[in-house]
């Protein structure tokens, strides 16, 4: 399986994302430049963390219109797997590929710490290697990570099983609605989360739980 | 034409920036201030102001979380 990881001006986690993808047995990864509409035949796309286009105007607002994103939107409509991490999650929300939006943290400060996430949906294609109810230890690092969606949207996300990850009880770091840490689209092939699974793939940094997201994607691809 | 677009956090959505400003004001002796909301002002020169609406919907604001108001300036 070949992962493509987008690099925007202002991305900062794309190299860690590539290294995380490469830890998946049999997988390779390459960077995709934001100004190049060609996806170079990759099997899955990762939209990484950082500050794409300086996060000017609104987080993710300008990156969403980059040439590569027009191709990612088409790719997702054809069923391609798309994972958005942190700023990537914000970009996917701005692009309309995922419901909702990310707002500034309630506590008005940058948060950088390890959090526990509850796996709400342990299903293909992003969390099949987890068990439902399992806790994953994965770091968050963001200022604008408060997940928001109108009440009726939250209700339908819950009913349709689109809430994939929640912050563990009493561990919601940013004031996200319903403790939501990660959601998927209705079709199930696009997933975004604020925590950084690519930073939790090596025992040296305390947890390898993040790797399960990447291995799940590889298993889904077959 | 010169135009201004005011973008505000939607009513009912917590605005942490507004809260921070509201809490800072009494420290400076400004009492009796409530409901501070911080938005942004976008100024632009535009040939065809009829495009402003769609510009706001597509890029300048995110209608899910923000309200916008277009102010066209004559001259």
Overview of this protein structure:
The complex is a heterodimer of chains A (about 220) and B (about 80). Chain A has one domain: Rossmann fold, CATH 3.40.50.880. By secondary structure, chain A is an alpha/beta fold. Chain A is about 20% helix and about 25% strand. Chain A contains five helices and eleven strands. The N and C termini of chain A lie close together (about 10 Å). Chain B is of the alpha+beta class and about 80 residues long. Chain B has one domain: Mth169, Chain: A (2-Layer Sandwich), CATH 3.30.1280. In chain B, about 25% of the residues lie in helices and about 30% in strands. Chain B has two helices and three strands. Chain B has a three-stranded antiparallel sheet, covered by helices on one side. The termini of chain B are close together. The mean pLDDT of chain B is about 95. Chains A and B meet through loops of A and helix 1 of B.
**Uncertain segments of chain B:** none
CATH topology of chain A: Rossmann fold
**Number of H/I helices of chain A:** 5
Note the run of SSEs of chain A as H and E.
Answer: EHEEHEHEEEEHEEEH
Task: Please estimate the helix content of chain A.
Answer: 10-25%
How many separate domains of chain A?
Answer: 1
Q: Find the structural class of chain A using helix and strand composition.
A: alpha/beta
Gap from first CA to last CA of chain B: 7 Å
**CATH class category name of chain A:** Alpha Beta
The domain tally of chain B reads: 1
Helix content of chain B: 10-25%
Largest interface: A-B, 18 and 11 residues
Order of strands across the widest beta sheet of chain B? Answer: 2-1-3
If you compute it from the alpha carbons, what radius of gyration of chain A comes out, rounded to the nearest whole angstrom?
15 Å
The CATH topology of chain B turns out to be: Mth169, Chain: A
The total count of strands of chain B amounts to: 3
What structural class do you assign from the helix and strand content of chain B? alpha+beta
């Amino acid at each position: 399986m070949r992962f493509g990881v987008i690099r925007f001006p202002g991305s900062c986690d794309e190299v860690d994302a590539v290294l995380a993808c490469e830890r998946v047995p049999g997988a390779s990864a390459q960077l995709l430049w934001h100004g190049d509409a060609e996806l170079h035949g990759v099997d899955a796309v990762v939209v990484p963390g950082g500050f794409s286009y300086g996060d000017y105007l609104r987080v993710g607002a300008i990156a969403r219109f980059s040439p590569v994103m027009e191709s990612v939107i088409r790719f997702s409509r054809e069923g391609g797997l798309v994972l958005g991490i942190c700023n990537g999650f914000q970009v996917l929300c701005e692009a309309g590929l995922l419901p909702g939006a990310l707002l500034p943290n309630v506590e008005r400060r940058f948060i950088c710490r390890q959090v526990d996430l509850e796996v709400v949906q342990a299903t293909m294609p992003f969390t099949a290697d987890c068990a439902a109810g399992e806790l994953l230890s994965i770091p968050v690092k963001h200022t604008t990570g408060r997940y928001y969606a109108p009440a009726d949207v939250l209700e339908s996300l819950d009913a349709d099983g689109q809430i994939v990850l929640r912050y563990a009880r009493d561990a919601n770091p940013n004031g996200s609605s319903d403790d939501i840490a990660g959601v998927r689209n209705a079709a199930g092939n696009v997933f975004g989360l604020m925590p950084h699974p690519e930073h939790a793939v090596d025992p040296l940094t305390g947890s390898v739980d993040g790797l399960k997201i990447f291995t799940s994607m590889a298993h889904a691809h077959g | 034409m010169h135009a201004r677009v005011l973008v505000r956090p939607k009513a009912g959505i917590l605005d942490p920036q507004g809260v921070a400003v509201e809490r800072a004001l009494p420290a400076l002796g400004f009492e009796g201030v409530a409901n501070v909301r911080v938005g942004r002002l976008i100024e632009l020169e535009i040939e065809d102001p009829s495009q402003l609406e769609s510009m706001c919907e597509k890029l300048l604001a995110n209608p899910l979380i923000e309200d916008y108001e277009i102010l066209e300036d004559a001259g």
